Input
Amino acid sequence: MSHDSRSDDDDRLTRRHYVAGAGTLATVGIAGCSDSGGDGSDGSDGSDGSDGSDGSDGSDGSDGSDGSDGGDSASELEIIHWWTAGGEQDAYQALLDGFREEHPDVEITDNPAPGGAGSAIDTVVQNRVIDGNPPSTFQIWPGQALTPYTDEGLLEDIGDSVWDEEMRGAYLDGVIDLAQPAGDLVAVPINIHRLNNLFFNVSVLDDADVDATDIDDPQGLLGVLETLDAETDVTPLVHQTQSPWSSLQLWESIFIGQQGVDDYQTVIGGDVSSLEDEVRSALDLLASYLEYIPEDAGSISWDQGNDQLIEGNAAFLHQGDWAAGQYSSADGFEFGSDWDMVPFPGTTGVYQSVIDSFVFPTNNPSPEATEQFLNYAGSVDAQERFNPIKGSIPPRTDVPMDEFGDFLSRQFEDFQNSNTQPPAIAHGTAVAPAIQSALEETFANFNENRDVDAAYQGIVDAF
Amino acid sequence: MSSGIFAALIRDTGGSVRSDGPDVDSDAAGDEASDAEPRVRTDGGTVVDGAGERSGSADAEPSLRSRFRRSRFLESIPFWGPPGVLVLFFVYGAIGWNFVISLTGWEGLGSPDYSSLSTEMYTQLLADSSFHAAFQNTLVLLFAFTVLSLVVGLLLAILVDQKIRLENTFRTIYLLPMSLSFVVTAIFWSWMYNPSNGLINELLRAIGLDALTQAWLSDPQFKLAAIIFALMWQFSGYCMVVYLAGLRAIPESQYEAARIDGASTTRLYWRVIIPQLRASTMSAAVVLVVFALKAFDFLFVLFGVNPGQSADILSVMMYRVAFDRVQWAYGSAVAMVLFAMALGVIGPYLYLQYRRGEL
Output
């Protein structure tokens, strides 16, 4: 073979030159394509970039006219959110239904980024924002969680366009503050969950002759857990240690219960070392609590643990009031007679808030529709549709509570009577994401080794 | 890089010209390694040397031979050129860019500032206790997982190779875990390891070993071991298949010869068969190491971004730092360490293969 190829070398060479030429052309062509792609995304119009990165957008013919005609693009609203689990999904659909009724001309592109508590959404949204290709709006915790965006001016000030006088009057001041972490109002809170709840199984406590309302402080709860452990077969406290956020939020509640909200504000302000003894004492108590959690806490999720409470195998659960949704969907497990809730001992009058909000990213592909949506999200109608299903209370204080059921109505009352609504570390509102993540790492280690010294150092280093 | 490809191309040419002769080349891979090695090396050596000389003095002495070879090189450009350029741009270009980012201080959602580059992120890494833990765990995982999987895979392969009944069924059963995604196996093993109703502890209790039951995935003493065991379960089947292929390539006559010489079964495998499986071991080990470095999915499904210090590995740390904390530069630095580790494993392997003329 090799002899043959040498003999008709000349003839082959020419053919090969054709191939070579074609190859070169292809290379140049590819380079050319990537060049023009680069130009497109460099330009100020973000919608060009979306063609490449988002298949669903690219297939839509209307994209081509985006650049020239702003009004046309306003008819398509892309929402990124993480509400994909049962009740959340239904609540979100109810919200969209309400919006469609008011704005039938707007087409909604639903873009869920599933993953509990936004574990995946950050990655999606951050990448798109950095690429200059943000969605119309996305779900995010207000407060410090917004700071990576506000630091770079990536969120539009909606103080005038959305937050009119009427809306400002309807929100509590603490919530409005969270919507303006850097001065400008940039977010519309749509729901509020309470974090400092202590749920319990009524009959389990009755059998053990324990009255949850008698527990005055976090130390007292430890005594009750000890009693339950000694005298009954139930798991005293349902908890999960698979991921660290549950321990982190429990520590927050213990700290507030022991030291009050002022010291808590000092800590989230970053001054941990001035409160060394207080922080350590809360960690000590948390370590003691962890003696009374399920054996398989490291292998379960919080809702699997909650099933134990529903089945009567466990007594207490510290969790945000999203846990109540599981009780209402359980058969024959009624509020008041089967389960109940008290504020975490020592935190009566505190409504520690976990909030979801929507924002207006700059470079917006559909400014008009986004504004319509945010206006709607801040309205009574939207919050009345969304929150009863979500199991949260509306941030607006003027929403009628007819649809909300006994438990949420009581929560709403507590909310309006609360002295203070501090933000939550484990749910983004209290500290910037980098600090939150470092604290979560600290508590992941604490779940493993319950080493108070290391955890204290970790908390100091996180800020 | 191009000179490497060039040399490889030239050597290929040499090989094909020579291949009319005795078929030493094809056997060299697994069989008679010690015998084939020097011959191949000599062949490769001279050609590479020639290539080196020519690149220096090609213009000075344009002999017919070198011109021919040279034109062959040019002619082949259209075939490996475009993919080469694409790989160069998208793979090596991205790695290079990542390295540059790791030298900046890029944080948050703005743009990186390329004007002041420093190795600050790397010095920060050296002082970071969670990096130490992650690095150590990665090494332990890498080593223990690879060795255990190879050993188990080899044992399985030898057992399956005994001309047993239902051989194909067993092979399928052992290989099946490999085809599952990490997400599936992670959830599956989290059930297995559940301390109160998981299969592992139930089994221990059933045979009266209550004392050995553990909270496998929450006790920091056992966490990493439990993960390594689960990964080993998944990948030893792959090792088995690789080894089985290696075993099948060994001629029956060698078994017979060893038997006639009076070797026991242990001795037969230890002295005759296993030494010939070097190529299989190498290729399986490289794949395993790469999977160990990428065990991210498994840990992420089990624990999210915070597995805790006892099970944290570099790939999880990289994700946590970059996407949870928006510290892109620091995440890039972790990624570079990970890249260096992967290169540290694959580089010597490729070099060895190259020296042995198997590349």
Observations:
- The domain at 73-193+354-417 of chain A is CATH 3.40.190.10 (D-Maltodextrin-Binding Protein; domain 2).
